Amino acid sequence: MINIFKQSELYVFNDGLNTYRYTSGMRELNIDNNIYIKESINRSAIKRDASLSKNKITITMPITNEIVQQWITPDITKYLLVDIYTLDKKNLVTMAWSGRLTQTSTSDKDMTMTFELLITRAGQTGVNDKVQRNCRYSLYGERCGLNRDDFKITGNVTSYKNDVITVVFEKEVPNGYFIGGIVQTPQGEQTFIKEHSENSITLFRKNQQLVDNLSKGIASVILYKGCLRTLDSCNTFNNTLNYGGFPYLPLEPLNSGNSIV
């Protein structure tokens, strides 16, 4: 039986470029000139645990959903945020939870997305950025500012064993060029690159789409230049203005590591 008295919820997803609005209610809503599309959305309970690692929820949506379609083969340089609001009988909106996508699980009918609490967006105290020597930004991400298509090279995989692939590149590149970079199949599955020596590329994990492609005789891949997240490495991209680290931090702790308070 459908509970017609159940409190409706509003879901606002944002990937940095686009905003998607849905409601778990029984009809489409127009609130403050924003349209919330009726969607079959289920989520786990919201927890308020002292341990931030436990403050996660799962959101399940049909496989036909527009957001789900975009994350079947996720782009590892992008992100997805969600804000969840409750809507009472007087159409008063209250924020209930805010989080960032960390994991997806797909079946034939739907996708389950795991979101972790985004504490700074929920009005709580917490560290958002780290002060460190190395760059804290995602390579080719929004804050990095680089267009990865400017640094891509195509290649053909001749072997794949134990997460190590042998690639014939379209042009010669120096050793280490792809360390910290990305390999991508024609279908879009991406994997970070751990090591690069001559024609040998070591991946961080298994790329199942690449395995399937090779079994079908499809050997082509796209590789994107890597970054060691140092100022010198950033300079090879001519991108030091967007460097996300603090390379001139003192090597020794200030005040011998003692509190100055």
What fraction, in percent, of the residue positions are helical? under 10%
Q: How many domains is the backbone divided into?
A: 2
| Global morphology | globular
Largest sheet: 9 strands, mixed
Strand arrangement within the widest β-sheet reads 3-4-2-1-7-8-9-6-5
Measured by DSSP, the beta-strand proportion falls in 35-45%
Q: How would you state the average pLDDT, rounded?
A: 85
Distance between the termini: 61 Å
Query: How many E strands?
Result: 15
SSE topology string:
EEEEEEHEEEEEEEEHEH
Going by helix content, strand content and strand pairing, the class is mainly beta
Cα-atom Rg, whole angstroms? 22 Å
List segments where confidence is low: pLDDT < 50 over at least 5 consecutive residues: 1-5, 120-126
Helical segment count? 3
Would you kindly provide a written description of the structure presented here, covering whatever features stand out?
- With 261 residues, this protein is mainly β.
- It has two domains: 8-117, no CATH class; 148-242, Beta Barrel (Thrombin, subunit H).
- It contains three helices and 15 strands.
- It has a nine-stranded mixed beta sheet.
- A hairpin with a 5-residue loop joins strand 12 and strand 13 (190-197).
- The longest helix has 8 residues, at 208-215.
- The radius of gyration is 22 Å and the shape is globular.
- 20% of the residues are buried.
- Residues 1-5 and 120-126 have low confidence and may be disordered.
Properties at a glance:
nine-stranded mixed sheet, globular, disordered N terminus, single chain, mainly beta, Thrombin, subunit H, 261 residues, six-stranded antiparallel β-barrel, 2 domains
